[in-house]
Design brief:
This protein has helices at residues 42-48, 74-85, 94-103, 122-129, 154-157, 189-201, 231-235; strands at 3-11, 17-25, 55-58, 68-72, 112-116, 133-138, 141-144, 150-153, 164-170, 202-211, 218-221, 224-226, 240-245, 274-278. By secondary structure, the chain is an alpha/beta fold. The longest helix is centred in the C-terminal third of the chain and has 13 residues, at 189-201. The chain starts with a strand and ends with a strand.
């Protein structure tokens, strides 16, 4: 009682329809409606805006993900693996191309690879297509009938002592601390998430493949952060930047009135390249 199922359709640039089913418990609700910018006190606003170093765009969303369970089927994963083997660009467009370029330089065969954040098993399938063993850590519970994929909620994984040689985080940390998904308001939520990767997830000399939006330093409340030449170095603190694909410093000049991002490099909007960071 109180549960129902729906399906999410992901429409790709190759006109494929791929379905992820989710279960939703209607009895579980967010305790609080996500905070609006005007509801923050001045101290928090100043910290989010880096005391004048970041701009502000308001584009407020309220996403109730409480009680959500994702269902990843082996049938879907097999389809996605086939697409990954031919280097298909999926939801994030050219970001995937740049990930493929970076992965060429590393051997994932037989290695456990952490995927931080997931709503469709796309990056898990990329790892599987390269012979790796994906381990997904996600806010929502994931039900999966494919034993090639291990899944944990964030909370459950903290009871496990495990580190990885490789971690993949695509378009995830820029949301941390903005409260959109019921997370605590925290101006440094993204920096703390990176500290977590460094201290809890990565082995010595471990590699993080990271993608976040790059443009003028901006808080798009409450959608995401956009990283410019002020915030990005803070995100990389403690890590060694050893490679990137799709990045050059001209991206720091990009902005969009509504804080929207582009899935293509050739655009005036902020774009998400791939950074390769070493512990």
């Amino acid at each position: 009682m109180g549960k129902f199922s729906i399906s999410l359709l992901f429409i790709t640039n190759i006109n494929k329809y791929l379905i992820v089913k989710i279960k939703k418990d209607k009895n579980k609700k967010l305790d609080l409606v996500p905070v609006k910018w005007d509801e923050l006190n001045k101290q928090l606003k100043d910290k989010f805006l880096m005391f004048g170093d970041a701009g502000l765009t308001e584009n407020y969303k309220s996403d109730d993900i409480s009680g959500t369970q994702l269902i990843y089927s082996k049938k879907l994963i097999d389809k996605l693996i086939k697409l990954a083997k031919i280097n298909t660009q999926f939801y994030y467009g050219e970001t995937d191309y740049h990930l493929y370029e970076c992965l060429k330089k590393y051997d994932l065969q037989g290695r456990d690879v952490a995927i931080l954040g997931s709503t469709i098993p796309w990056y898990e399938s990329i790892v599987l297509s390269r012979g790796g063993r994906p381990v997904t850590i996600e806010y929502n519970e994931i039900e999966c009938d494919d034993d090639r994929l291990k899944t944990y909620t964030n909370q459950n994984f903290y009871n496990i002592e495990k580190k990885f040689d490789f971690v993949i985080s695509i378009s995830s940390f820029e949301h941390d601390g903005l409260g959109r998904y019921g997370d605590p308001i925290n101006p440094n939520g993204d920096l703390e998430a990176m500290d977590d990767v460094y201290n809890r997830f990565l082995n010595k000399n471990g590699i993080l493949f990271l993608s976040v939006p790059i443009g003028k330093d901006t808080i798009v409340w409450n959608l995401h952060r956009i990283y410019g030449n002020k915030r990005l170095p803070l995100l990389f603190e403690n890590f060694e930047l050893i490679d990137s694909s799709g990045f050059d410093e001209t991206l720091f000049h990009r902005e969009d009135t509504y804080g929207q991002l582009s899935s293509q490099y050739n655009s005036d909007k902020p774009f998400q390249p791939i950074f390769v960071l070493k512990k």
